[in-house]
Amino acid sequence: MSKPGAIDLATPTALAAEPAPAEAPPAAGRKAAPEPDTAAAPRDEFFLPDFCAARSVLAVVLVAELLAVALALARPGAPFLTELARVSLIVQWLALTSAGILCFARPALARLSVPAASAAVFVLLALNTALISGVALALGANAAARGAGGFFSAPNWSFVLRNEGICLIVTALLLRYFFVAHQWRRHVRAEARSRIDALQARIRPHFLFNSMNTIASLTRTNPARAEEAVEDLADLFRATLRDSDSPLRLKEELELARIYQRIEEARLGDRLRVRWNVAELPMKCRIPGLTIQPLLENAIYHGIEPLDAGGTVTIEGRVDGNDVVITVANPVAEDSGGSPRPGNRLALENVRQRLALAYGGRGAVEVRRPPGAYEVTVRFPREE
């Protein structure tokens, strides 16, 4: 059933959708809030980093070269550059082959407990060290260690055992570092998640209060619209009470704002107009839930409602490099001097903190007060 005051989503400035027709939002009428997206990849909880990544390989090369410098400095009797070149050759081979082994073995290691995975890493790297040391001896990389008795002579065994000892010490230190760093990251994520949950829990009662006031005002004057508003409210809460650990797709977040818009249209009628200009936005990127809807709620409550003739809320979005930028603008009464009504800071500060927790310095909220208007711009990285 079509609703009065509904936006024509087929216009060029309408709420954008994916190219496929199945992704497009409806032109009018009530639509249930989007269901949670279960296709998101699970968080990697293994304490070992991904050695297949280029960043990890670069770190391995740098750490190995620092170790080679330290070993070369430990032998003051030999020419430094000659010793550094000889040590770097074998250390880099050991480091890169070990990283390759851990890269391919990581899926299997991730299924083990931490002690079992650590023991398996020790065994794999010890075997790799013995193999590389043997190849180095066979190729003459350590001529001083080759004796007349062949590979099994005492100097050869001494060379291999020294390398094994260095390997075990370095592996133990790195495993301890990886585990402590992993535990610290889990603690930071858990603390951030608890703060995000608390912030989201604070905004829900405020939203519910405003929505219930709207429904109460319609129960006697327009029972049919009141019933539709209750259905919209149920749809919203079914989506917003979901597990906040999984961010919404941007398309889902905009649809939540669109449903809230319908609730307010039932109360304000023709006084409320909303213009959407978000055709350039990537609808599959992720955003914390209840980010845009509180800004629309503020724009209506602090901007449109005090105006006798109402006004137009403009929601515009664009892509700026690797960031998504969305601006919500609304008119304000001339005698207010551009200042919102009291109580506006709760939602703005809430959204600002949640973006900072989710994205660090890349998530931000900016407020501008041009003459006769109030603009809030959110910026967050494009992550799909």
Descriptive report:
The protein has 384 residues and is of the alpha+beta class. Helices cover 54% and strands 11% of the residues. The chain has eight helices and seven strands; from the N terminus they run H-H-H-H-H-E-H-E-E-H-E-E-H-E-E. A five-stranded mixed beta sheet has the order 2-4-5-7-6, with helices on one face. Strands 1-3 form a two-stranded antiparallel ribbon. Helix 2 (80-109) packs antiparallel against helix 3 and helix 5 runs antiparallel to helix 6. The model is unreliable at 1-29, 36-42 and 141-153 (pLDDT under 50).
Question: What order do the helices and strands come in, and which of them pair?
Answer:
Blueprint: H1 54-73, H2 80-109, H3 114-138, H4 154-221, H5 223-240, E1 248-249, H6 250-268, E2 272-277, E3 286-287, H7 292-304, E4 311-320, E5 323-331, H8 345-359, E6 364-368, E7 373-381
Parallel strand pairs: 2-4
Antiparallel strand pairs: 1-3, 4-5, 5-7, 6-7
Which descriptors would you attach to this protein?
single chain; 384 residues; alpha+beta; two-stranded antiparallel sheet; 8 helices; 54% helix; 11% strand; elongated
Short synopsis of the structure:
The protein is of the alpha+beta class and 384 residues long.
Give the strand line-up of the largest sheet.
Answer: 2-4-5-7-6
Q: Roughly how many Å apart are the termini?
A: 34 Å
Cα-atom radius of gyration = 31 Å
Helix content: 40-55%
The helix/strand series, from N terminus to C terminus, equals: HHHHHEHEEHEEHEE
Please, what is the average pLDDT? 77
Strand content: 5-15%
Tally of DSSP β-strands: 7
Structural class: alpha+beta
Looking at the structure, what is the overall shape? elongated
Helix count, DSSP H or I runs of 4 or more residues = 8
Low-confidence runs: 1-29, 36-42, 141-153
Main β-sheet, in a few words? Answer: 5 strands, mixed
